[in-house]
Structures are given as structure tokens and as C-alpha cells.
Design a protein that fits this description.
Length: about 240
């Protein structure tokens, strides 16, 4: 989960919630980024975070009983390797293209974990591309959608949108050209503009916890599920 300490309480965005925000972003992209396998691409954007990344994998509270942001994980290197390998194995049994794109993303995030493994995921990706008659360049363009959408979603979820008169680079994964967000008079402008419409609106789903800390993970989960679901909207302009 993604955790932010605010005056109102702990703001919690699940990683699967972040993935849904990424899916909103991808769905609004220009048609030039959408090929014949758009549904599979969109599903990969949503499935790049699985249920194993939220409340059923590892600690959700730190030693003080406070919600634990995934970036502060207590997992050892061995535990991380085991988790990623299990995720890749589970994902490989899904729809083939969805699996290949999601595993491609795990490889981007953890390249060191994909070297010299018993299962050759590079061969798996090549086989899927061959079976679907997709050239490697087209596959990388499909993956670029996932990478761009994931990064912009994280910028939003981490509250890293730029302050007035500043700009932040997203990445260059869509077509090789870096895309930036700039804050101009409290309006977020993207340049170059990657979306179909001249203005888009998206939202992130969050909960704000009342308690400052929790005695047990079960007490955290109980309060989490009882809290009001909030929608925080964002607009971007050409």
C-alpha cells in the first residue's frame, strides 16, 4: 500500500488502487498508441499489481504500529526474490499477452532477479510474440503504455505533481520522447500531449484512517474497511 501522513490522518492508497488509476490513464491515451491487442494491454496495466502487493503479503504495520508504505518494506532480499518469482509464476498462467506484458514490467523493476533463473522468462515473452505474430518493436510499444501509465499514476499517488511554475518528467516510454507535467497557474499541462481528448479527468481512490497507530494488523484492517472511500480527482490539459 501507499501511505501518506496527513493532518487528517493516514492516507491509504492500495497498490491495486494505483493500478486502477494507471488503467484510467492508459484508457484515455491517443488511438495511435492502441493496437489490435488494446484490451490485453489494458488488462496488463491493471494486473501489473496483484493482490499479493497489498494486505496479504508481508507486514502492513511497522514496529510502532503505523501503516507501512511498500517503499519501507522489511522484506529481506531473499524474501523479495521469492515474492517476485512467485508473482511471475502466477502471472504466467493468465492470458498469454497479459502475462508477457506484466512479466516484462517485473523484469524492468527487478532485472537482477531475472538473470540465470530456472524459468527463462525472456523465452516466454519471445514465444508469446511469435505465437501472436507480434514483432518485438510492437510488443515494446505495448509495454511502453504500461510503463507510462504506471509512472504517471505513481506520481499522482505519491503526491509528486509539480508545484506552480515547475515541471516533472514522466518518462519517454510511449514513443521515445520525454513527456513532462508542468504546473501553470494551478493547471497541470502535459507536453507533448499523449491523450485523445484535449482535457482529461481521472481520480484516485483512498481512505483516511482515524487512528494514529494500531495494536494489530487485524485492527488496522477492520478500521480500513469501515472508513469512507474518497475519490480525489485530477485534471490534465493540453
Amino acid at each position: 500500500m501507499i501511505v501518506k501522513n496527513t493532518n487528517a490522518g493516514w492516507e491509504i492508497v492500495t497498490q491495486t488502487g494505483h493500478a486502477f488509476l494507471a488503467c484510467q490513464i492508459a484508457n484515455k491515451l491517443s488511438t495511435k498508441f492502441k493496437n489490435n491487442y488494446w484490451l490485453e494491454t489494458l488488462l496488463a496495466v491493471y494486473n501489473h499489481e496483484t493482490l499479493k502487493t497489498d494486505f496479504n503479503s508481508g507486514s502492513i504495520l511497522n514496529e510502532k504500529g503505523m501503516p507501512l508504505d511498500f517503499r519501507e518494506s522489511y522484506a529481506t532480499d531473499a524474501e523479495t526474490i521469492d515474492k517476485i518469482e512467485n508473482m511471475a509464476k502466477t502471472i504466467s498462467y493468465r492470458s498469454s499477452l497479459v502475462s508477457a506484458l506484466t512479466i516484462r514490467h517485473l523484469k524492468f523493476l527487478h532485472p537482477e532477479l531475472f538473470a540465470n533463473k530456472k524459468v527463462d522468462y525472456n523465452s516466454f515473452i519471445r514465444k508469446v510474440c511469435r505465437d501472436f505474430s507480434i514483432k518485438s518493436k510492437e510488443f515494446e510499444q505495448m509495454y511502453g503504455v504500461l510503463q507510462f501509465s504506471d509512472r504517471l499514476s505513481l506520481i499522482i499517488c505519491f503526491d509528486e505533481l509539480p508545484q506552480t511554475s515547475r515541471k516533472v518528467e514522466i518518462n519517454n516510454s510511449l514513443d521515445g520522447n520525454s513527456i513532462f507535467i508542468q504546473n501553470e497557474e494551478s493547471k497541470f499541462i502535459l507536453d507533448p500531449w499523449p491523450f485523445e481528448s484535449d482535457e482529461i479527468s481521472i481520480y484516485k481512490e483512498l481512505r483516511v484512517m482515524n487512528s494514529a497507530k494500531f495494536k494489530t494488523e487485524n485492527s488496522f484492517l477492520k478500521e480500513y474497511h469501515e472508513m469512507e472511500i474518497k475519490k480525489l480527482s485530477f485534471k490534465f490539459y493540453k
